[in-house]
Design brief:
The chain is α/β, with parallel strands linked by helices. It contains 14 helices and 14 strands. It has one domain: Alpha-Beta Barrel (TIM Barrel). The strands form four sheets. The chain has an eight-stranded parallel β-barrel with strand order 1-2-5-8-9-10-11-14, surrounded by six helices. The longest helix has 22 residues. The chain starts with 22 loop residues before the first helix and ends with a helix. It binds tryptophan and manganese (II) ion. The site of manganese (II) ion has 5 residues, from loops.
Length: 452
Amino acid sequence: MDPWQPSSWRDRPALQLPAYPDAQSLAAAERRLAALPSLIFPGEISQLRQRLAAVGRGEAFLLQGGDCAESFDELGEQPVESTFRVILQMAVVLTYAAACPVVKVGRIAGQFAKPRSSDTETAGGITLPSYRGDIVNGSEFSAAARQPDPARLLTAYSHSAATLNLLRALAQGGFADLHEVHRWTADFVRSSPQGERFEELADRITQSLAFMQACGFDAARAPQLHAVEFYTSHEALHLHYEQALTRLDAREQRWYGGSAHLLWLGERTRAVEGAHVEYLRGVRNPVGVKLGPTARPDDVLRLLEILDPLQEPGRIVLIARMGSDKVAQALPPLLRAVRDAGRAPVWCCDPMHGNTVTSSNGYKTRDFERILQEVRGFFAAHAQEGTYPGGLHFEMTGQDVTECRGGAQAVSDATLGERYRSACDPRLNGSQSLELAFLIADVLKAARRAPR
Ligand code: TRP
Ligand code: MN
């Protein structure tokens, strides 16, 4: 008998959790969360697992993107809608140009907790707890803001619920209809080279739809054209929150995480004996695992044994974040080990987190060229090992920011400061995201044609 319980992680070493000063108010917040409805429905998890199983077989591509960290202050219709429209644009580029179905997953509606390299931060002779994301404390450098506050768990829940509600409306209510493809381009992207390239592609889609209609195909009767399936994900870092939203599906008698569809383990919290692995082992949700350049084949195989003992299709997404200069060395041994163990998880490329640098004027940034280089290296490693490059995990925003250097707009050190808005990692803007999608469409098309 499997002794797993939603609380069994509490007996394990738990990294990256905040030290709450008042255990009683934490327990009270957990009780309130536990009484609230799950944000998602178990049937949606089964559906996502089926979609990811198709990715594992090389029949579809996973597109997972959004903010590094969401913020309580940024909740409004506009940021959510603009992020969603960029994901739609990228998805339609891949679907059309690579003729490949795309599974769309946002880093959204719950991405509020951040791992930190140090528990404290010192400035001007004062030492305070580190900022751990809006679900824990405030980013302002003051003792009051940095005190972990359990009431924030409930705020995170309600922000997630409101965001998810809007996303469901956008996905199902007509906004994502393929006939609307021209309306997804933001004004500031439209005039860029990527924007123009997208408009050409959108014209071709509109023509194809008109052609099919003229042939007697009734678009009104084809629900696939009018809506998309859109799933949510975040790093399952804050285990008090995740546990409180864990629910038993009465029909299946199985546990699932009710905070998002897909949950992932960070590079710092994937220790085999640790609390985060223990929690995720027991829920039905698809589980992502971030893998950096120091991940050893044996560690990965042990993790897979624990998280997916029955080798179920669609359960595991391995997210490689190697760095553009390391991917060619570090990835193939992992691909081989996993393949030789007879497993076919989804392999996804995170070209963001291994490529973060500091600009000459002190901004945390990423070079667009190195991001592209890691993506190319990821595809090349899969071609070499005969495995399938199944997805992309990226940080972006639909807003017109200047946070990553390069791209067709040639953001430079000098222009980073113009619209640098991220409270956390630098994100691709709308036109850089499109440029990335066009590149991937090309390499994906080639990879899918090549015999495996
Ligand atoms: N429903 C299909 C899909 O998700 C087609 C589709 C409708 C679509 N709207 C879309 C594809 C927007 C990409 C983007 O693939
Ligand atoms: Mn990040």
